[in-house]
Design brief:
single chain; flat; 555 residues; mainly alpha; 25 helices
Length: 555
């Protein structure tokens, strides 16, 4: 404590001695230079400028600008920073200084976002974007759109958030790798908030493609894979969730990532009731955590897991460990806050530093002592109540186990009955679909859709001529029979033309390769190539083991 006091006292004396005899312009110049490395010292210089209300417009601009940056970045007094910045904006507007005005608008947007005022942030970022459009500065236009989208996302106005997010893709080729990656990731975040998981996954995959060979952004891939794992988990796609969790662990860049990614993997195993694996990865997350927050989350999952298993002893110890970590983090946070206040007061008033340090130390130790007493009392109370309730819980647990076993048997019988009913319905559905295909007029033109003995002996002419009404009937019928198959394709894959959708419908109803070749007047090999091109270019499927037929059959 004495060491820090001596250092700050020395800085204070140097600044005061340097301020003596200097003009206001020189003091402001010194403050501008020093604020890059030491905002406290820059603010101290401002406090030694007499009568700031008498400064000229330009001097006041510099004075207010430094005050805004100090209030926002150093002491996080957002309302004060915003109020002072209004004067800066007024000065820039009156003097028609576009460069300074854009800087002030950008800073105002950030301040209001940090202060939980997205409407005002949107207002200032919109002005920033408008000025950038007049300058035809694409980089700044995209920066403005990005932050407007962030503000709408904060307001939970997802439509406008997505609208401005999509504007980020204008002049895409001019963007560097970093901006491309961050903008795609932001679009994915908007879709995630809108619960459009497929779109969020698509844009997250775009980020992975962009940064795949760029080591400067390698750290990003692990976090994206972890987010994709959580999205798949929320969609009950456990296998995919586990695959992404494993991939995220391979892309870890620090110990914090290890604990976070292992925690996600544990959550996947919890969702599929693989308790042993879940406990294993929860323990790894606890042991690899550096900041304690991941450990607290892992312990909370362990507590609930042990309760569900009826292992109240281990659940109790996990609860105690979590409480210890929680209190430790609380003490650390309280210590950090106390130290920050202590240093601020020390800079303002040198004569009271020793007394203030002593008081803060006393408060710290009293806080620790009080917290320790509270923890001990809570532990004793918890132990007493747990011992008293243990027998009751064990009795209730035995009764619930018996009741649960009877429910399991009953549910299994229900499932067997439902499976039989489902098989009957599926057989009826297949018969109805086959009957409808026979009644389609277009089915008479396609040999592989004909089922009668007479029709099977019809010799192919080598060309099947399907006209516009035939295609419309085919697409409409397949759309009705397969749960709006064509409509869903058109919505989810807007790059598909009507011809592409017709091609997909033929594949959906298993038209033979020979008939496909006769319809499109190309060879069977040409049909195979067409499938391959559509799979990669239109559906963005690059898995070798998955064919377009298989994909559409399960779609």
């Amino acid at each position: 404590m004495l060491k820090y006091f001596t250092i700050y006292s020395f800085i204070f004396v140097i600044i005061l001695s340097g301020c003596v005899g200097k003009s206001v312009d020189e003091l402001l110049e010194d403050a501008e230079k020093i604020m890059i490395t030491n905002l406290d010292s820059a603010n101290l210089i401002l406090e030694n400028i007499p009568h700031p209300e008498k400064l000229t417009d330009n001097q006041r601009y510099i004075y207010d600008r430094i005050s805004v940056i100090y209030s926002a970045y150093r002491i996080r007094q957002w309302n004060k920073a915003d109020s002072i910045n209004e004067a800066v904006l007024d000065y820039c507007a009156r003097n028609n200084d576009t460069i300074k005005l854009k800087e002030a608008l950008r800073l105002s947007g950030w301040i209001n976002m940090s202060n939980g005022n997205p409407d005002k942030a949107i207002e200032h970022y919109s002005k920033y974007r408008d000025l950038s459009e007049k300058q035809q500065n694409n980089s700044d236009i995209q920066y403005g759109c990005y932050n407007i989208s962030r503000a709408y996302l904060e307001k939970e106005d997802y439509v406008n958030a997505l609208l401005y997010a999509k504007n980020l893709l204008n002049n895409y080729e001019e963007l560097n790798v970093g901006r491309k990656a961050y903008y795609y990731r932001h679009i994915a975040a908007v879709y995630k908030k809108m619960n459009e998981v497929d779109s969020a996954m698509f844009y997250n995959n775009k980020v992975l493609e962009i940064v795949a060979d760029n080591t400067d952004y390698y750290f990003m891939t692990g976090h994206i894979l972890n987010e994709m794992s959580e999205m798949e988990l929320n969609s009950n796609h456990f296998k995919e969730s586990l695959r992404y969790a494993d991939s995220s662990l391979k892309r870890r860049t620090n110990r914090k990532d290890i604990s976070l990614f292992n925690l996600t993997k544990a959550k996947v195993f919890l969702s599929v009731n693989q308790t042993d694996s879940a406990k294993k990865y929860l323990r790894i997350a606890i042991e690899s955590s550096e900041d304690g927050l991941a450990s607290i989350m892992a312990y909370s999952y362990l507590v609930e897991l042990y309760k569900d298993m009826g292992d109240y002893k281990e659940g109790f110890y996990s609860q105690m460990n979590m409480n210890d970590l929680f209190e430790k983090k609380a003490v650390e946070a309280n210590s950090d806050l106390t130290m920050q206040k202590y240093q601020e007061e020390k800079l303002k008033n040198e004569n009271n530093e020793l007394q203030l340090a002593k008081r803060e130390q006393e408060i710290f130790f009293l806080s620790v002592a009080l917290i320790s007493v509270v923890i001990i009392v809570a532990l004793l109370f918890y132990l007493f109540t747990e011992l008293k309730r243990k027998k009751i819980r064990e009795h209730i647990f035995r009764e619930e186990s018996l009741r649960a076993q009877s429910l399991v048997i009953e549910n299994e019988n229900k499932l067997l009955r439902q499976e039989k009913e489902l098989m009957v319905l599926r057989e009826k559905s297949a018969i109805l679909r086959e009957s409808l295909f026979r009644k389609m007029s277009v089915a008479t033109k396609i040999p592989s859709l004909k089922t009668s003995d007479d029709e099977l002996h019809i010799v192919s002419t080598g060309r099947i001529d399907l006209r516009e009404p035939d295609w419309n009937e085919l697409i409409h019928t397949v759309d009705d029979l397969f749960g709006e198959f064509a409509s869903r394709l058109e919505k989810e894959y807007p790059v598909l033309s009507k011809e592409d959708i017709g091609f997909c419908c033929l594949l959906k109803i298993n038209v033979s390769m020979r008939d496909m070749a006769d319809i499109y007047c190309i060879s069977k090999a040409g049909i195979t190539k067409k499938k391959t091109r559509m799979k990669k270019d239109k559906f963005n499927i690059h898995e070798e083991g998955l064919s377009l037929d298989d994909f559409l059959a399960s779609y």
